[in-house]
Fold these 3 entries.
Entry 1:
Amino acid sequence: MSRPSSGFTLIEMLLVVSILALLAGILVPSLDDSSSYARDAIRTADLRRVKAALATYKARFGRYPDTGGNWWGEAPDFGSRGYGPAGYIPGLVPGYMKALPADPLRASTTSPSLGYVYRSDGVDYKLLAWQSPEDPSSSSTFADPADPSSWSIHTPGARNWIP
């Protein structure tokens, strides 16, 4: 007497593997999209936090942190200023923010210009998420009027400033 074999046949295993490969092919692109949405959500939160900190700074000192009218940023093209007290927004840390925000793609990019950049003459200011939002059209609240590939917060006088 022979006993029936238990287990899967080669055909059954190949079928299962091909179904799993098909599902992975469908899911991977959607997971990549959700990562870019998450990074854009971080940028939105960063811009809101900095806007509130700048308003508090201005209420106390009567002017915005001044860069002498020059663009300062976290990227090499804008001085690699950093995130501490002498960072790209001078004087905002540690009194008004724990640390200046870092663009979520800054650490993983070789782009010399991508990231947050700030300019102020003391009266007006503009903070840009310069060339970094992955879907610039997704946030009409922060769409920069002078550059559609960036998001910004700014005073009316700095509306058209661009690096």
Entry 2:
Amino acid sequence: MFWLSVGGNKKLGHNLGTWPKGEKRPFKFDSPGAVPLLCNVHPEMAGYVVVSPTPYFAVTDKSGQYKIENVPDGTYSVVAWHEGAKNQSKSVNVSGSATADFTLTK
């Protein structure tokens, strides 16, 4: 397994190599950003890890809805990521229950 960059930073690329079935190779991602994972042996295999710089994040459900709970009151930049689109952000003022809607474009 390998990745060419973390959040677009090519200096953070890494190659874990290959290993026997059942063996584990731990790795700690400590830089925020999207990490496209690739397989050394099977080019059709791919995945993503998204490293969040904050404990306040969510993954959308099948209908695209999400909820981030227990966010302290304040003004934040909410960032939406999708593998087929550029990162998009929106400022949201959290006071009680606030919403931030996104329509992602390519």
Entry 3:
Amino acid sequence: MKIVPCAVLATGFAVSTVASAEVSVLENNKTLTHDCAKDRVVDLIGNHIKLTLLGTCARVSITGNHETVIGAATIVYVAGNNNNLTLEASEKITLAGNKNTLTWKQGAAKQPPKIANVGKHNTVTQAK
């Protein structure tokens, strides 16, 4: 797992590394662009993070609040609240948190993504 400390975010992903290709963002109030070809799993734990994904990540997990995510991920899990996701493509999306906004464009293999909306007051729409 990679942990992205606050001072490093401004200059790139010079981070501590363990065997898996995973990035965890613990800090608050960050704007990031992430290359999914380098690290396939992203965990947003801090709050008020703006993340743009390049390519398609295997998994994006959001436990923080007030996150903005733009891009594509095969699996998306949102436990936090008041998050805004704009997904180009995804296969499986779980909204367990509350007051999240999800816009998705397409699913895998011309099928819509499987969406589990178990939180409260979430908004889910397909982009036109």
